Amino acid sequence: MSDSVQNPARVVILGGGFAGVYTAKYLTKLLGRRRDVEVELLSEENYFVFQPLLPEVAAGGIAATHVVNPIRELVPKARFRCCSVASIDFEKKQVMVSQGAGLELVSVPYDQLVFCLGKVTHFANMPGVAEHALAMKDLADAFRLRNHVLRCLELADIEPDPDAKRALLSFVVAGGGFSGVETIGELAELVTRSLCYFPRIDPAEVRFSLVHAQQRILPEMPEALSLAARQILERRGVEMVLGARVRAASPSAVYLHDGRSLATRTFVCTVGTAPNPIVQSALAQGGFTQAELNGRAISAFATEPTLECAGRPGYWAVGDCAGIPSPTGQGLCPPTAQFAIREAKTCAANIVAAIDGQPKSRFAFRALGILASLGQRSAVAEMFGVRMSGFLAWFAWRTVYLAKLPGWVRRLRVALDWTLDLFFPRDITQLQVFQHEHLHVHHYEPGEAIVRQGQVGRELYLILKGEVEVSSSTSGKLVRLGAREVFGERAVLEDTRRNATVCATQAADVLVLSRADFHAMVQNLPVLRDYFADLLRVRHPDAMPAGGAAWDGLPKAPAVAPAELRAS
Ligand SMILES: Cc1cc2nc3c(=O)[nH]c(=O)nc-3n(C[C@H](O)[C@H](O)[C@H](O)COP(=O)(O)OP(=O)(O)OC[C@H]3O[C@@H](n4cnc5c(N)ncnc54)[C@H](O)[C@@H]3O)c2cc1C
């Protein structure tokens, strides 16, 4: 047996999105039955997501599982490893991954390494956005948004307080690029078509807002089509908040840099991406060149026109994590699926050429067209130089994306979803499949109420950052609390209504603990039990048992077993 068959060249592809899956697909096709090259794809999920259809999943037009394909099914000739890339040892040519139920650290050797890791969602510079905004990047985001919107409609239908109802019926999307515009269009369709089931909601009470930093939405499109998209959305009642940037978010509002705020319980943030940490760390380790766009470093690998990382033979970058010179000679290739698929084809051919010592080819592709769906049977599109808007563009959009979906089974399923959607109302079943998180961080802006006097106490709060003011109309007391202080303990312990209102006086981050978890912790941790007994003695002497003995309101042992804890 020849040495090359015993020790095949190992091509390792990092990432299972458009770039990774299509590189593996083209590579295994080109290699055919060759046994001297081994291809392995590493990704965190075992499925590939067709992201352009996510807004339709969020709007309930397509079933969630119809826009995903198992990676093993798409690239049966490549090895697949479901794992998380932890780091890369460039000296030893090994990728370190954590894998398996125990998340063991394992090394995966490579000869050729392809970076297809995309970008990650990153809201860190906007206080409260990570905690309160919904993203639109993967399947879970779309699924969560659909259920959240239907929940808001259910709550609004029975909400007596007009302000609270207004916030429940206000839907805000940040980002006027493709994903933001498509998301607000689809959201508007979902809500509008569902309203017939909610007789206590007046359609005039519903509000949709699109917040965008520039004056023009869809800046990647020709100006006439951007304008057409804007007019179509405005006709449907979408308010354009242009030239505005999100500064912060809380559970019930979005705050803008210009001082305005929008009361809402549904905030979808499609802006805020960052380089993948693995890409960042590889760039920081040196040896790779960082790509630049308009003179600004963009934390992506600068590549040659062959897709090889500049100055690093054997390393390749494709898709959103790559800065590939545009074949037009101006700037870089755009971070789109359309380009990632074509880049993958060139990259696969050049990897084979590199292994065989053959000359490599340059990436050459001109976008065939540009399309954006706006929901409710309209879209804007430019294809082969022809501009369209409205129904015709929508039909073109659906045809193109149906053709692009990988696999006949998925195509048939999506075609069936779309056909049924033409004749039947949207399904308004609200599924509560996500495990309830008992512990979470909330962000509040100055002046916002965190709890109101009279509400039933279901949560305990620990201030992580900032300051709050506690005021009671019955006792007339006014107290200020800061970092590492708790509030809300009495109502939670006694299962009564709040005896005070708590408002943020500065921007505050607050850790919220559910009543069930708080009780379980106090019962099982004597230190915590003593702490709260002392706190209650100081803060609420009026409620102390006669003689100032131990506080009876505190739950007592026996300790709760972990299984019971989970059930509670
Ligand atoms: C809502 C939405 C709509 C869009 N609409 C369009 C459209 O209409 N047309 C268009 O052309 N483009 C569209 N795009 C853009 C397009 O989807 C992206 O350009 C494309 O997905 C980029 O592919 P990628 O493979 O480079 O990155 P990604 O798709 O982000 O894939 C990255 C992969 O790397 C994996 N990964 C990341 N870190 C690790 C790690 N540490 N360990 C293991 N695996 C890891 C991830 O799990 C993922 O599989 C849209 C995007 C979104 C979000």
Summary, kept brief:
The protein is an alpha/beta fold and 568 residues long. The protein contains 17 helices and 32 strands.
Task: Furnish the topology, listing elements before pairings.
Blueprint: H1 3-6, E1 9-14, H2 18-31, E2 37-43, E3 47-49, H3 54-58, E4 68-70, H4 71-74, E5 79-89, E6 94-99, E7 104-109, E8 112-115, E9 119-121, H5 129-132, H6 139-157, H7 162-168, E10 170-174, H8 178-194, E11 207-212, H9 223-235, E12 238-242, E13 246-250, E14 253-256, E15 261-263, E16 266-269, E17 273-275, H10 277-285, E18 290-293, E19 296-302, E20 315-317, E21 322-323, H11 337-356, E22 369-373, E23 379-383, E24 386-390, H12 391-404, H13 408-423, E25 439-444, E26 449-451, E27 459-465, E28 468-471, E29 478-481, E30 486-487, H14 489-494, E31 501-504, E32 508-514, H15 515-524, H16 526-539, H17 562-567
Parallel strand pairs: 1-2, 1-8, 2-5, 8-20, 10-11, 10-16, 11-12, 19-21
Antiparallel strand pairs: 3-4, 5-6, 6-7, 9-17, 13-14, 14-15, 18-19, 22-23, 23-24, 25-32, 26-31, 27-30, 27-32, 28-29, 28-31
Helix pairs in contact: 2-11, 6-7, 15-16
